[in-house]
Amino acid sequence: VLIFSSCFLPFISNAQVTILSWNTAAGVTGAHNATINNANLETATLNRGPLLTYNNSSSNSYVAIFPKDQNKVGAKTGAYYQVNIQAKAGNYVSLSSLDAILRRASTTSPGYYRWAYSIDGTTFTEIGTEDIFIPRTAADNNNGEVQPSIDLSAIDALQYVPSTTVITLRLYAWGGTDIVSGSNFGIGKFSTTAPSLIFKGSVVNVLPPSYTVTFDAKGGTPVSAVTKYQNLKISAPVNPTKTDYNFGGWYRDENYTTKWDFNVDVVQGNTTLYAKWIDSKQIITFPAIADKRYGDTFDLSATTNSGLPVTYEALTSNITITGSTVTINNIGLATI
């Protein structure tokens, strides 16, 4: 007798794949649903902010007219594109990267932009360290400009977000100088090989194990431990300080052979990182020089604790120094 049974295995894969993308299309006056939408996500939408005016002058794009002569502060009041992302019940969504094609119709279109995110729909945090300017327009490339990929994997708030929370992302844009159709700015154009907007990440129904990363400051100012889910990056803490020493980074081992790379390394288990310290005081080791005679030539071999090169200077007239080579030109005490 053969007995077959089945069991449910929770899906906990953390593979980073495309979970949402948009093939933008002209003529969409309201919300633009994602073209590719992970089955375990609610339907994600792309929307125009309240200060944008619908525009339909660019094919395969989702564009609008932005307010004239506006700065970033003004853009945050309503001049933006917005994406809403939410996991279905029982699932958790993580975002690892954001890729976009953006198109300035002309030099009078907005040229500056910045992405931001929120998990409460009210408080938004800017992504990245600086605003981005797009110098080229449709006159240079009518298909829009592929923007640098944005790494989201180190943003804790965007990892393993439960179904009860909606992730809101906004693309603020500003700097336009006209409000005619030829001054539009938007997302696109899409092609058969390149969607206009892509979010990569994962959607799981079981949380992975979490681990603690402890920082051993080795006599420096204390650094608090952090707890992270498996396979996530950690953000670099504020550098500790130590009197008379310079901080040299965090290492996986106390022999300081493997440095932790906060841009690449992910947490795989409970981990201790060790602070490396470099003595800020310059110590020069100068081996004793035996008695020399008039006419002798010899080499000096001083070393430093920092590894920096040593230069030499003759302080008396009875010797000359070339590089590290000393020549005795007369009798008497010589000082280097």
Question: What would your notes on this structure say?
Answer:
The protein is mainly beta and 336 residues long. The chain folds into three domains: 17-204, Jelly Rolls (Sandwich); 210-279, Sandwich (Immunoglobulin-like), CATH 2.60.40.4270; 282-336, no CATH class. Helices cover 1% and strands 36% of the residues. It has one helix and 26 strands. The protein has one helix at residues 72-75, and strands spanning 17-22, 32-33, 36-37, 45-48, 53-55, 61-65, 80-85, 92-104, 112-118, 125-126, 132-133, 145-146, 150-151, 161-162, 167-174, 185-188, 197-204, 210-216, 226-229, 245-251, 271-279, 284-285, 297-299, 303-304, 319-322, 325-328. Strands 1, 3, 5, 6, 8, 12, 13, 14, 16 and 17 form a ten-stranded antiparallel beta sheet that branches. Strands 2, 4, 7, 9, 10, 11 and 15 form a seven-stranded antiparallel beta sheet that branches. Strand 25 and strand 26 (325-328) form a beta hairpin. It is elongated, with a radius of gyration of 30 Å.
What order do the helices and strands follow?
A: EEEEEEHEEEEEEEEEEEEEEEEEEEE
User: Approximately how much helix is present in the residues?
Assistant: under 10%
CATH classification class of the largest domain = Mainly Beta
Secondary structure tally, helices: 1
Summed up, the domain count is 3
- Second-tier CATH architecture of the largest domain: Sandwich
**How many beta-strand runs?**
26
Looking at CATH, which topology of the largest domain would you report? Jelly Rolls
Mean pLDDT: 91
User: What Rg, in angstroms, do the CA atoms define?
Assistant: 30 Å
What overall geometry do the principal axes of the alpha carbons give? elongated
Structural class: mainly beta
Strand content: 35-45%
